[in-house]
Amino acid sequence: MDQKDLRFVPHVLAIQVGTAVVFPNTDPVSHNVFSISEVKRFNLGLYGRSTVRRVTFDKPGVVELLCNVHLEMGAYIVVVKNGYFAQTGSDGTYRITGIPAGQHRLRGWHERLPIQEQGVAVPENGSVTLDFFGRN
Amino acid sequence: MKNAMKPLAVMLLLLAADLFLWTARAAAIPAFARRYETACTTCHVVPPKLNAFGVAFRNSGYRISADDEKFIKQPDVPLGAPGWKKIWPKNVWPGAIPDRVPLSVAVEMVTDINPSDPVKLNFAFPEEVELLAGGTLGDRLSFFSDLAFEFGDGTEVGLERGHINFQLSESHVANLKIGLMETGATPFSRFSNRLTDADYITSDFRARDGGFRFRARQQGLELWGARNGPAAGGFQYSAGIVNGTGDGSDNNSQKDVYGSASYKFGGYGVTGPAGTAGVDTLKMTDNFIDNSVEIGVFGYQGWTGEADEEKDDFNRVGVKLNAYIDRLNVYGTYVRGRDNLPSGVSLSSNAWFVEADVVTLPWIVGTVRYDQATGDDSTFLHVKRVIPAISMMIRANVILKAEGHIYVGGEKNSVLNGDVAHNKAAVRLAFLF
Fold first, then answer.
1. Which residues of chain B are within 8 Å of residue A73 when distances are taken between CB atoms?
2. Considering only alpha carbons, which residue of chain A is nearest residue B75?
3. Tell me: the pLDDT tens digits for B227-263?
4. CB B81 to CB A133 under 8 A?
5. Contact B80/A at CB under 8 A
6. In chain A, what residues touch B79 (CB-CB under 8 Å)?
7. Chains A & B: contacts with CB separation below 8 Å
8. Where residue B416 falls among pLDDT bands split at 50, 70, 90?
9. Dihedral class, residue B89 (left if φ above 0, else alpha if ψ from -120 to 50, else beta)
10. CB atoms < 10 A from the CB of A39, how many?
C-alpha cells in the first residue's frame, strides 16, 4: 500500500491471513502509518520518501489505517481467512474463481455500509452471480 | 352575498387568463433534490407540505434514515479520515461538509386582489426571494437556514430561521436544536404543513395588541425527538426554552418554555420504514397516501415585558389531530390562551381551525380551511373565516396557487397582522432552484 499524493493507494486492500504488506512512501513529504484496530495494532513511525516499511497481518478482520501527519488520509486492509475473495473494480463488479462446488456463504464488506452475508450454491461447472449493496 | 362573490369571480378569471405560479413561504429546498438526484415529490405533497417520507427525512436530521449512504449522489467532503473517531478524545473529531454549498433559491410572485382597498389589483413581481440552505455536517450534525428578501415599498431582509441540530442519541430520540426556529409547540408548521398563504389562525392570532403568537420564530434551544412505533407511525416530542421576543434581543430575564408530544397511529414511521426494513428506492409517486391518525398536545408558557417592568404572564395550551385517509388529509387544532396582565386583568382567548386537503391529481391539491378565533381583549379580532385554495405543481419546482379569504362572521374589519381583515384573493407564482 503506497502513500502517494497524500493518499493511501489503494484505498482498500484485500489480503489473505499471513500476508505481509509493504508500505512505500513515494510522496515528497514524510508520512506515518498506524492502526489501532483490534485485529492489528501497529505504528510504523514517521518516515520519508523512498523508505519502505512492512507489516504482516496474521489475524482475519478489518484494519483501519491512518496517518498521524495528514488527518485526511485513511485506508482499509481487509484480511480474509481463505483465498476465495475479490475486490470490486471501479465498475462495482468482482470475480472469484476456483471455488469448490457446494453450498457456501459469501460476505460483502463496504467501508460505510453494514456487512452483508448471503448463501450461494456453487455448481460443478459454470458460474453464479450474486449482487451486494444495491445502490440507487 | 354579491360582494362576497365578486372577489372569487375575479380570482377565477385571473387563474384562467394568466398562469402564474405560486408557492407558499418556502421550506422546500432543491439542495436536497440535488444531493440525492431525486424529485421534490419524494418528500413533498406540494412544496412545502411534507409527505410522510419527508417528515421522516427531517426527523432523521436531513438524512434518509439508516440508508442515506445508498442514495447520496454528492458525497460529503470529509474533514479527517473516519478512523479518527476511534481515537477521540486524543484528537479532533473528524467531521464533514457538503460537497457543494447547499444553497437553494425560491422566488415568489403575487397578484393580490383586494376589492375593499383603493388599490384593488396589485402585482408584486417578485414579492419575495428566499435563500434556503440545509444539510448535514458529517454524522449527527445538521443545519437549516432561511434568509428572506421582501420587496414592496423598499426591501426588507430578515432571517426567517437559522439553526444547527445535534443528534444526541444513536437513534433519533434525542436531538438538541439551537438557533432561530419555529418552536415545536407550534401545532402545525407554516413551513412544512401549510399550503395557503394565509397562516393558520391558531398561529396568527394575538390575545392582545402586541402579544405573543405562535408564528413568531424564537431564539433558543429545543430538545426534540422521534421514534417509530412497533407498527410504524410513532412518537414525537419537543421541549424548549426561548427568549420569547421573536428574532429580537430579549428584554427581560425570564425565558419562555414550551413542550409538545404527539403519537401517530399507523402509516409510515416518523423516522423511516417500520422495523428493520430499509429504504429500497426513492419513490417519487403517490407519496401523499399515508393512512394514519396523529394526536398531539402542546403548551407554551411565557412572559412579555421590559426587564424593569411587570410582566404579562401568559400561556397557550391545545390539542391537535392529523388524519390521512387515502388522498384526503384532514387536520386541525384547538388552542386556549390565558394572558395575566400587570394591571390584574386576565384575558382568555380561543382559536381553532380545521382544514381538508385533497389530492385530486398528483399535481393538484384542493384545500378548504375554516379558521375561528375569539378573545376578551377589546382590540382582539374575532375571526370566522373560510379559505378555499388550490395548489398546482406545473412542474415539481414550479407551483401555481390561488386562494380566497372569505370572512363569514366575527369582525370583518378587524385588524389581523396589521392588515384589515377583509375578503380578498391572491394568485401566486413561485419557482425554486
1. 81
2. A112
3. 999 989 999 999 999 998 766 777 778 899 999 999 9
4. no
5. yes
6. 71-72
7. 41
8. low
9. alpha
10. 16
Q: Are B251 and B307 in contact (CB under 8 A)?
A: yes
Does B19 score more than 50 pLDDT?
no
| Mean pLDDT, all residues of chain A | 92
Q: In which domain, by residue range, is B195 found?
A: 2-432
Taking the C-alpha atoms of B179, B180, B181 and B182 in order, what is their torsion angle to the nearest 10 degrees?
Answer: 150
> What was the pLDDT predicted at B17?
30
Task: Tell if the CB–CB gap between B69 and A36 is shorter than 8 Å.
Answer: no
* Mean pLDDT score, A72-88: 94
Check pLDDT > 60 for residue B423.
Answer: yes
The reply to whether B276 touches chain A by the CB within 8 Å rule is: no
A12 neighbourhood in chain B, CB within 8 Å: none
Q: What is the Cα–Cα distance from B307 to B304, expressed in whole angstroms?
A: 9
pTM, 2 dp: 0.85
Interface contact flag, A136 B281, Cβ < 8 Å: yes
Cis peptide before A28 (omega within 30 of 0): no
Amino acid at A33: V
* Chain B residues close to A68, C-beta within 8 Å: none
CATH of the domain at B364: 2.40.160.10
State the Cα torsion B64-B66-B67-B71 to the nearest 10°. 40
Chain A residues within 8 A of B81 when measuring between CB atoms: 66, 71-74
Among chain A residues, CA nearest to B95: A72
List of domains in chain A: 2-80 (2.60.40.420), 94-130 (no CATH)
Residue B240 corresponds to which amino acid? G
Total domains in the fold of chain B: 1
| Residue B118, Cβ density class (10 Å: 0-12 exposed, 13-18 middle, ≥19 buried) | exposed
- Identify residue A120 by its one-letter amino acid code: V
User: Contact B70/A134, CB-based, under 8 Å?
Assistant: yes
Q: Chain B residue with minimal CA distance to A135?
A: B70
pLDDT in tens, B261-297: 999 999 999 999 887 677 777 777 788 999 999 999 9
B93 touches chain A (CB under 8 A): no
Tell me the sheet residues that pair with B82. none
What is the rounded CA–CA span in Å between residue A3 and residue B139?
A: 27
Sequence-distant (6+) residues with CB within 8 A of A31 are A3, A25, A46, A47, A67, A69, A70, A73
- C-alpha cell recorded at residue A125: 461447472
pLDDT above 70: percentage of residues in chain B: 89
